[in-house]
Amino acid sequence: MMRTIEVFIVIIIITSAFLISSFYAVLPQPRRVSPLNLRRIALSTLQTLDAGYSLSETVFKDENDSAWEQLQIALSACLPPNLVYNLTVYEVQSGNETELYRYIKSFSNAQDLGVQSDAGAYLVASSNVTFQVTPEKIGEHGGGGTLYILNCSDSNGWWITGYTGQSLAADLYNLLSPYFQNTIMVQTTAQLGQILNGTSLQGETLQNAVVINTVGEAVPIPSGYYASSGVGYDSGHSSYARYCYVLGQKVRTYNWTWASIVGWPFYYVSNTGLFSSSQNSWGIYGMVMVSSYGLQAFLQGLDNQPYSYSTSSTGSPGVVYLSTQAQYYSNYYGIYPSPYQTSTRALPSSIQTDFRLTVSTLIFNPVNNYYAGAVYRHAGTGAFLALGLARTPDIRLTALGLLSYYKPRLYRSEYNATGTSRLVVLQLGQVGGV
Amino acid sequence: MAGSTIDHLISVTIFIGALLLFISLFNQTLQTAVLYQQHRNLAAKCSDLLDSILLTPGVPLDWGKIDSSPIGFGLQDPEFTQYRISPFSLMRLWSSVGEPVYYPDTGKTYSNATAGFGEYLLMPSASAVNYSTVTRLLGINGSYGFQLTMTPIVTVSVSEVQSNPLRIAINATGKGFPLANAEVSYCFLTVSLAGQQSYPSYNVTYGTTSTDETGSALLDFTETNGDEISYALIAYAHISGLVGVGYHQHVTSDTQYVIPFIDNLETGRVLLAHSYDVHFLGTPAAEISYNATFVILTEDFTLREIPLGADRVGNVTYGEGKTVTIPTDNPGILLITYRKSATEGGVVMMPWGLSSMGFSVAFGSDPSGKEWVATDLRQVIVNGVAYQATLALWSLEGYQVIS
After folding, report:
1. Is there a single domain that holds both residue A320 and residue A422?
2. What tens digit of pLDDT does each residue of B119-152 get?
3. What integer pLDDT is reported at residue B403 of this predicted model?
């Protein structure tokens, strides 16, 4: 009998244990077992309402403006019937180190927020706020960072129809100087000769610089040493192709990136003093034709090959389209050239194997093994940006190509101006059911 | 001695019985808790997966605009951040709702996201992204099943309430409330079958109105007899950044007409087929001439026409379709007016990018009959039009721990 009593005592103990554990082991309500992610719904709702900046405009309007009513209608229409909301707007007042959130307005469509609620917050800025974007300087972390823009007053341009080299240089300066540590306008061919000699113009770093030739298919040539026989002049062929060879060598030596903005690179050399009585066979004085030998000689110099007077070739693929990479950086840097252009001087892909070049940045998609726009990186040192487009040049493409190549980051300022930022908090609640 | 043995037997029997009962009770409580935990885990997985789909553009970034299969799945518009969805990626999803269409002239089967007569979206199976591919790309193949639905937040229904003179009603409603006092911009296209040329021509007029407190608006076209002409009306309702689109068309020839099939996404080539080729209604007596145009939605909610090439006009006959090429990457609407005879014709439309006409899409498996389905939703923007993305997710590995 005792054992039976003991068993009953054990049963009572186990029953008590079960009751106590059941009391504390509270299972969640069925609704909470598989909840909607109200926080993300709230955030995505606010983003949807602000897709056309309507929310940003409304929350800065007067409290009695009809736009608030429209916002409430839109919000009610957005959300499923079983979700209730409370939208509250705060003004963000920034102190030295802290931020104060001052209540502005609130509206709701329910007395309470049901069995479950969560909130999403969204910071909007007034339309009259100006945001500052600070670009990272090229060369900031690895040396270089000098941009040379050939703005030689004693050079004429070719295939830059409608522009002068000087006007293009000014535009390039405005576009690109924020991204470089130093931007030097090379004002004369004599200054060009100086940097070719390895002497800086304003104490800038010469090594790893970028040189943009703004005079199109022509290239400025300094008189004197660089135009002399055996240096820049090939007396055997009566050609200045040898000067282009020297340029290629300098690009290799100084690890420059040489940018040709339009047409067939190095097709002419220009110096209005040196060639005052010569013309480029199209009636432009101060310029001498080098023809296709110039490009070939430049690439030979870049690849440290011996100079050989030989021709180069280009292709005419016609309409070409911006590469995906270029489109991405177009959005990133806010530079928007036309996405398709006409190319009649595209470089063949064979130059990659002939001169140990690699396409590191594709500006236009290649067509039939011709590159209408690309930055070629040499296996050793030096790089070459060539835009083989038909005139007229679009220097935005040059800027886009260089920025896509160097990829400087953009640091955007925070929205912390007093009275220009507001915080919108959308609290959602789920009603109905259990 | 015997009493002690009986006592022992009784007590052991009672004890074992009680023990089994309590084990069962405890086990049930524990199993219920485990089950709840698994369901909650499924809900978290559903939310994470939905964000993963909506906040990544996929690989390659522009997979929505090319014909090859993606190697990473995501629907975000690569040109934007946040919950902005590519209308072209959505267009490539194999619709799990519409019956696939077979077109004998190409020998291909097409995913059918068509909304109704005259509103077509037919994507070749080779270009459409199917469910098994996506589950593999998302890494849930064999472990979870899902259905993703994208539906416009604002439903704009357009209907004819009177034919002569033509009176059209527009009704705009959201998910939970009518779109009261919303501005409505509309494009009214009438088809002209007469004229010297054999191709139909069209006339487009634009206008604006606003909805009343119930989200309704009436449009009167006093000089138009709806019984005699073919027309289409596309309406955009918008308020405080919330945009919805609706449409309606009336045709005078609803058996012989033109059906557009997407042929090549990258080049924008669209096949135009005779309806008899698709529905096998018999041999038609007459060829159908057509005149195609492409319109895009501008920021002020008007439609702007993009000129098409010489292939914009032509004739389709039974067994012989034609092609027309859309020359832009922008989303828009391909409007095809067609003419069977001097009195019979009409207009059909095809969105280029899912959102242009506010089409819905359901992609994935059917959740009905599943033991436990977790759902979550997000509000998204698809080329300016507000959509709601809903994901239903269930486990394929089973939960059933209580028989």
Report:
1. no
2. 899 999 989 999 999 999 999 988 999 999 999 9
3. 37
CA angle B123/B125/B129 to nearest 5° reads: 90
CATH number of the domain where residue A101 is located: 3.30.1140
pLDDT digits (tens, 9 = 90+) for B350-384: 999 999 899 999 999 999 888 889 999 999 999 98
Q: Which domain holds residue A317?
A: 133-412
SS3 A83: strand
Chain A residues with beta carbon closer than 8 angstroms to that of B178? 77
Q: Pick from B7, B242, B374: which is nearest to A34 by CB?
A: B374
Same domain, A123 and A220: no
A279 pLDDT more than 80 = yes
Same-domain status, A120 and A152: no
**Start-to-end C-alpha separation, chain A:** 49
Q: Which of A8, A33, A55 to mutate to test the interface with B (most CBs of B within 10 A)?
A: A33
Q: What's residue B285's pLDDT? A: 65
- Both A297 and A278 in one domain: the answer is yes
Let me know whether A78 and A207 are in one domain: no
pLDDT reported for residue B236: 92
CB atoms A79 and B380 under 8 Å: no
Interface with chain A: mutation pick from B242, B267, B385, highest number of A CBs within 10 Å: B242
Nearest CA in chain B to A327: B79
Q: How far apart are CA B218 and CA B210, in angstroms?
A: 9
Contact assessment for residue B267 and residue B202, using Cβ atoms and an 8 Å cutoff: no
Query: Into how many domains does chain A fold?
Result: 2
Q: Is the pLDDT of residue A408 over 90?
A: yes
Instruction: Tell me if A7 and B179 make a contact (CB, 8 A cut-off).
Output: no
A286 and A269 in one domain?
yes
pLDDT tier, B167 (very low <50, low <70, confident <90, very high otherwise): very high
Q: Minimal CA–CA distance to B147: which of B359, B393, B389, B376?
A: B393
- Write down the pLDDT at residue B401: 45
How much of chain A, in percent, has pLDDT values that exceed 70?
94
Query: Is the distance from CB of B273 to CB of B261 less than 8 angstroms?
Result: yes
Regarding whether A215 and A315 lie in a shared domain, the answer is yes
Is A47 in contact with B76 (CB distance < 8 Å)?
no
User: What is the reported pTM?
Assistant: 0.68
Select the residue of B39, B241, B376 nearest A51 (Cβ to Cβ).
B241
Identify the CA nearest to B37 among candidates A34, A5, A56: A34
What distance in Å separates residue A432's CA from the closest CA in chain B? 14
Q: Which residues of A touch B43 (CB under 8 A)?
A: 33-35, 37
Nearest to B262 by CA among B51, B113, B41: B113
Average pLDDT over residues B246-263: 89
Q: Report percent pLDDT > 70 for chain B.
A: 96
Q: Is B177 in Cβ contact with A25 (below 8 Å)?
A: no
Q: Is the pLDDT of residue A415 over 60?
A: no
DSSP string, B333-372: EEEEEEESSSS-EEEEEEEESGGGGT--EEEE---TT-S-
CB atoms within 10 A of CB B103: 18
Shortest alpha-carbon distance between residue B10 and chain A (Å):
7
Mark yes or no for CB contact B7/A15 under 8 Å. Answer: no
Rounded Cα distance, A33 and B398, in Å: 17
Q: Residue range A122-132: average pLDDT? A: 77
